[in-house]
Design goal:
Blueprint (H helix, E strand, L loop, with lengths): L10 H8 L1 H13 L6 E5 L4 H12 L3 E5 L7 H9 L3 E3 L6 H12 L5 E4 L3 H6 L9 E4 L2 H7 L3 H4 L3 E3 L4 H24 L7 E5 L3 H12 L3 E5 L3 H9 L7 H7 L2 E4 L19 E5 L9 H6 L3 E6 L4 E6 L4 E5 L17 H19 L8 E4 L2 H16 L1
Helix pairs in contact: 1-3, 2-3, 2-14, 3-14, 9-10, 9-14, 14-15
Bound molecules: nicotinamide-adenine-dinucleotide (NAD).
Length: 389
Amino acid sequence: MDHGGPRPLSRFDWVADSARLLRQTGEAFERTQPFAGLRIGTGIHLEPKTAALLMTLKRGGATVVSTGNLNSTQQETVDYLRANGIEAIGGPTADPEVHDRDLRELLATRPDLLLDNGGDLFVRYFEAPWDGLRGGTEETTSGRDRLLPLRDKIRLPLLVINDSPIKQFGENTHAVGAGTVESFIRITNRITNGRRVTVFGYGSVGRGVAEYFRSFRSIVSVVEPQPVLRLRALLDGFDVPDREIALASADVVVTVTGAPDVVTAADLGGLRDGVVLVSAGHLPWELDVPGLLGDPSVAGSDETADGITTLRLRDGRSVHVLTRGHMVNLAGPRPLGNSIESMDLGFTLQARCLEAIALGTIDAGACVVPVPAAIDALVAAAYVALARS
Ligand SMILES: NC(=O)c1ccc[n+]([C@@H]2O[C@H](COP(=O)([O-])OP(=O)(O)OC[C@H]3O[C@@H](n4cnc5c(N)ncnc54)[C@H](O)[C@@H]3O)[C@@H](O)[C@H]2O)c1
């Protein structure tokens, strides 16, 4: 029998199908309608995984008005949202003024709930507050740090998703750990087996990066200034050499510290020939790429389209830098970011937190605080049940 050939499946279909928790939550929301009559304003990256979250909120009865973050909006996602009944303000932009205008246009619609990513919406809300905002969520650490000083002013329920243990181990450790190894292989097409990898930073992200390179058969060491975390790395079975010794033997160096200038031109003399420098930290400052490129010991550099910059040193050695020091799992050819399942967990926390605020079960004292333990437990139990079904 002729089945008529394969039907086209879009990235949005694939994500919606893979994000099983959000799908289940959307089905529940369709019955309970927690957001009936409410407008939710969202300022978060517009890409297929967030589209699945916004569609889930819409299924719960919300009118969703969205805009993206600076430099991360995908036009394809904007088109998809508009075609599916979600207002999307603006489009891809790297211009802070255009982004600011988009955020203000969103706030002018006076949402009942805000879903923020980096504090952009809540910070502007105070410039022209309105009656009726019930509270909202903030996705990131940087947003939390921006909003904490405003806590007394906000006096609304505002839950920080990043501070959930589920986000810490599900996304920071496992998803970024796996994604960093995947990105190293995707960009370099090189083997990880037997390679000496040094990871700078043993926080929630560094632990995952170290563990995933080890499971890909690398010989991993950790450089971490905090004595307790250095001990933790040692007890986890990693070598913890002094940084100069680690750098001198590393085939691959990965920084995940959140700090600037972790590897600089001052280190060039002590690096192994052919070393690959990688960063998965949020800002492109952990590897001082301009300083490395401009050092007098560097005779020149070459760049591949795939995001590898090769520094040719005057003494004949070479040093490779991936994606110019930008977050490696979000750069280079076909970057996919964190796995759908890890975002499914984080975004279900988002949906359930907004539901609780909409239903009035979170009081105003819960302002810039972590996700309530009961919501963590609900989401964790649902994921395990689906995984075992
Ligand atoms: N790539 C991604 O998708 C992604 C996702 C989540 C977080 N991040 C970023 O990863 C970075 C680390 O996040 P985290 O949650 O693990 O932070 P964290 O603060 O828990 O851990 C960072 C660790 O780095 C150590 N450190 C600081 N300076 C150092 C140095 N010069 N040398 C060695 N170690 C140093 C600190 O002592 C700390 O233990 C942050 O920039 C964060 O924003 C990236």
